[in-house]
Give the backbone structure.
Amino acid sequence: MTLSATHDPALTSWVDSANGHPDFPVQNLPHGVFRQRGSGAAFRGGVAIGDQVLDVAQAHALGVFAPAADSAARAAGASTLNGLMALGRPAWRLLRAELSRLLRSSAPEAAQLRGCLLPQAAVEMGLPATIGDYTDFFTSENHMTNTARVFMPDAPPLPHFKWLPIAYHGRASSVEVSGAECRRPSGQIRISGQDTPVYAPCTRLDYEMELGFWVGPGNHRGETIAIDEAEDHLFGVSLLNDWSARDVQRWEMAPLGPFLAKNFLTSLSPWIVTLEALEPFRCALPRSADDPPTLSNLQPQNPLQAYDLQVEVWLQTARSATPMRLSRTSFRHGYWSLAQMLTHHAEGGCNLRPGDLMGTGTISGPGEGEQGCLLELSRGGQQPVQLANGEQRSFLEDGDSVVLRGWGETPGAVRIGFGECRGTVLPASQLPARGATAAP
């Protein structure tokens, strides 16, 4: 993919708040589903523009879209975006071009479309698509190194990390949109120095700063996806928080990996930034002369497979009205690309479907303050993080709100962002008495 007129930094919008907006200028145009707050109505598709939402279904009913983009516009206004994701890259590009044309300052349809705008502050966002399957990867070498020092300090680096993108299958039913509260999970925990585990609320609750990427057209079971065709199957990207119970994880993880430590909640930002919108932020993957050669099935012709996307984690505590930044880094440090992860996922014939979700794994950089989770920042709780308001954190406490933010910014392009992904920690549910049956 190359840059198009939709990326032109000179473009402005007749939606005044879009001009100079840090996340949603006319060069972005991310998709989501919304409804008016408190209405109880069905969700419908929208596009973020400045501090407004364009009701795509209402705009489509006006007949303003060119015939070539009509089917994509109809799908973009539906209650879930699975249908739009299934249409594929040519349809997505036509729709993006039409949305750009309709929302730029010179659009003759501006007067008609003003009635299709709602303030983002007045809407409730839903999960953008029906997620059939969710897979979480492990693609940051820095995260691998930092967590190994905590969990397995004497173990050598994973021998297969630089040969293939490592992943585990997550739980799609507990993926929820930003704003969902995180009830502190309970699980089986073995306390240091004791031989017998206990069933108790997690005391080492953590977040993981990730990106989530959405599958567009899938593949039939038994078929593979060639690496140079992988991006034809990628619709776009959201922010993702892979909440993690580290004490449960440490006890249960061997030999099959995380289970209950990860399946109680995964949070997603509500807007999907299309892959085409991210085109200005492409860069090369980090590789050194000591790295093994990438096998041919994961070796693309285009060397610019990574994206230089800034990601931040902020923490707002019950005692502080102002969020405090914990870390900042870039997705360009990830060892494997989105395309490589998707190709690897299907290389054995796994059938992917529109609306399937994949996570990048925790995004951590090489420097101090670039760690993507508290496990890394606090060295497993051995060095509590000092907050700006005088508090400390080794792991999350009840009442803490975790806020993820991300954006792309590079010379010659307009900054575009993802909005935010937010979640607040609630106390654990009361444990059932011995022999009692918990309420459903």
Remarks:
- Residues 89-103 form the longest helix (15 residues).
- The chain has nine helices and 26 strands.
